[in-house]
Amino acid sequence: MTASITRSSDETERTPHPVSGGPIVQLPTAFGDFVAQAWTDHETGVEHLAVSSPNPSRSGKAPLVRLHSECLTGDVFGSYRCDCGEQLAFALELINAEGGTLLYLRGQEGRGIGLANKIKAYALQEAGFDTVEANEQLGLPVDARSYNAAAQILAEMGLQEVRLLSNNPDKQNRLAQAGVTVVEMVATEVPSREQNLRYLQTKKDRMDHRLTLQAEHAGNGKTPLAHPFDSIND
Ligand SMILES: Nc1nc2c(ncn2[C@@H]2O[C@H](COP(=O)(O)OP(=O)(O)OP(=O)(O)O)[C@@H](O)[C@H]2O)c(=O)[nH]1
Ligand SMILES: [Zn+2]
């Protein structure tokens, strides 16, 4: 429980970010049967949740890991303003099929600026600003997230070499700085929609997200993925 993280570049030892994990419990879900473990960040008091496949990876490759930043509007309400809810469903389906872990990072709402500020940023986007400009207009960082707690949780779970389910190269770099080796980036693009196309285009153009946004990939509501709520309403 006290694994230290070292910089791969210079092997300089750093003080581990203080986190602790609780008991591992069964978590049967609409996406399959998982196990869950809560983790507390003792620096911030924020509680995160690791949701893992109970079976070891069948591929023999490094474990699949998704770091999912909290998005109340997308994850809980199924908002189409962003791709978060559908990415969450996609990741859980893949982890159920292939094995792996989804670490749900709370306190990262709105790329770390918080829910109320994200909604203010939405208001600015409705006035014409893009998702980057909106944060800047609020005098806030474009991306205020830290992955130090996540890296330490992964280390304590024995996940220091991972295949990262993400389109965000910055996440890969920031994890590497925190001591986690990303051996492969696994795309997590879901079909775009009319309502989130500008947002996704901005992420591609201004935040270097690896998104194709190809016409056949752009569902625009015509080829929706299974939504988290679809299989719950039985
Ligand atoms: N500030 C702000 N945050 C947003 C907006 N739309 C979604 N978010 C937040 O963005 C975060 C998700 O980040 P993304 O950039 O979509 O994806 P990522 O996690 O960096 O990259 P992937 O791993 O590829 O999904 C969540 O915390 C959301 O709450 C927005 O318009 N403004
Ligand atoms: Zn979102």
Explain what you see.
The protein is an alpha/beta fold. It has a domain at 19-108 and 145-206: GTP cyclohydrolase II (Rossmann fold), CATH 3.40.50.10990. The chain has seven helices and seven strands, in the order ββββααβαααβαβα. Strands 1-2-3-5-4-6-7 form a seven-stranded mixed sheet, sandwiched between helices. The longest helix has 15 residues, at 84-98. The structure holds guanosine-5'-triphosphate and zinc ion. Zinc ion binds next to loops. Zn(2+) binds at residues 71, 82, 84.
Entry summary:
In the N-terminal section; belongs to the DHBP synthase family. 29% of the residues lie in helices and 21% in strands.
Percent helix, as a range, is: 25-40%
Reported CATH architecture of the domain at 19-108 and 145-206: 3-Layer(aba) Sandwich
Give the termini distance in whole angstroms: 41 Å
Query: What structural category do the secondary elements indicate?
Result: alpha/beta
Largest sheet: 7 strands, mixed
Spans of at least 5 consecutive residues whose pLDDT stays below 50 are 1-11, 215-234
Globally, the shape reads globular
Order of helices and strands: EEEEHHEHHHEHEH
Query: How many helices does DSSP assign?
Result: 7
Averaged pLDDT, please? 86
- State the name of the first-level CATH class of the domain at 19-108 and 145-206: Alpha Beta
Looking at this structure, what is the CATH superfamily of the domain at 19-108 and 145-206?
GTP cyclohydrolase II
Bound molecules: guanosine-5'-triphosphate, zinc ion
- % residues in beta strands: 15-25%
* Number of separate strands: 7
Q: Could you please say which CATH topology of the domain at 19-108 and 145-206 applies here?
A: Rossmann fold
